[in-house]
Amino acid sequence: MRYRTYGRDLWPLADIERLRTQINRLFDVDPESEVTGLFDRSSSPRLDVVETDDAIMIACDIPGVDAKDIELDVTNNVLSIRGEKRRHESGDRDVKNYRRETWYGSFQRTLSLPESIDPNKVTAELKNGVLSIRVAKREEHKPKRIGIKVK
Amino acid sequence: MGRDITKQNESDLMSTSAESESRRPRIFPAYEVWDEKDAIHLRLEMPGLERNDVHIVVESNELIIQGQRPDWTVDGTVLLRERRVGDYYRVFTLDNSVDTDRIDATMKNGVLEITLGYAKEAQPRRIEIKTT
Questions:
Q1: A30 → chain B, closest CA residue
Q2: What is the Cα B87 distance to its own chain's centre?
Q3: Which of A5, A48, A53, B104 is the most buried (most CB within 10 A)?
Q4: What domains can be seen in chain B, in order of their start residue?
Q5: Claim to verify: residue A9 and residue A59 sit in the same structural domain
Q6: What is the distance between the alpha carbons of residues A92 and A113, in angstroms, rounded to a whole number?
Q7: Residues A62 and A113 occupy one common structural domain
Q8: Residue A29 lies in a domain
Q9: Across the interface, which of A28, A92, A102 has its CB nearest the CB of B36?
């Protein structure tokens, strides 16, 4: 607001912003990439969580991870997703790596779930590198539709 | 013949890319590239995509990889949204050492792996020195 009178192009930080954009373009770095900077490595997979009437639905991006390498559990209403992203096997020692933006190793994510969930009703499916989890709510917490009689 | 097929795919791709560009943000998939067994291997992480959702086009010296990521639509209250929304797009420049007829691709667990075979000429060739 302070710089409003300058207009967009005269905003003092605009040059820095433009420089940042150009550097990112130069290195073809996506400003919101999974790997947030040239040197950063992320090992917390991204989650989407949606609450529906009868369940909590979770989607998690974990490309390149086999289902057998994923551990899922619910303890005291805390869902934890743990796993190992294994490096592709290569018998050849004479491998030259040119560039790597991807990460390998273990990952973990925990999520507190509301009291209303039923820890015994958790289902999970892995498809195309996306883990989808459904945690059902307990019967008494599901909304009841009350019919209104017309007289 | 092979060229015609490429051109066809490209025109399909261009129409979808121009369309998607106006509405959907681009996701630059993270990749790694390495050299093994006389080929360049490229691995891109594109979670959420089926094999058929990925389009790979080679146009002159560019390898264009594009994929429309389906949106995760669940009716309810969004509690957390960290996953990216948009379509995958990444372009690589190829040099003459790649034989564009020897490009293979596989897709598994949301990871696209592309093998680019080296052109015959690019492989080292020993030159005999004649004695006169």
A1: B28
A2: 13
A3: A48
A4: 2-71+82-122 (2.60.40.790)
A5: no
A6: 45
A7: yes
A8: yes
A9: A92
**Rounded to a whole number, what is the distance in Å from the CA of A84 to chain B's nearest CA?**
14
pLDDT tens, position by position, A83-102: 988 887 665 556 777 887 88
Residue A82 and residue A11 share a domain: no
B95, two tokens? 């040099």
| Residue A6 shares a structural domain with residue A35 | yes
Which of B35, B73, B82 to probe the A interface (max A CBs under 10 A)?
B82
Residue A98 located in a structural domain? no
Contact B110 A102 (CB under 8 A): no
What ipTM does the predicted assembly reach?
0.71
Residues A78 and A124 in one domain: yes
Query: What pLDDT is stored for residue B18 in this prediction?
Result: 47
* Chain B CA closest to residue A97: B34
Nearest in space to A72 (alpha carbons), one of A105, A119, A136, A116: A119
The total of structural domains in chain A comes to 2
Within 8 A of A99 by CB-CB distance, chain B residues are 31-33
pLDDT per residue as tens digits for the range A71-87: 999 998 899 999 988 88
Amino acid (1-letter code) at residue B59: E
Which residue do the tokens 């399909």 mark? B12
Give the domain extent around A53.
41-87+103-142
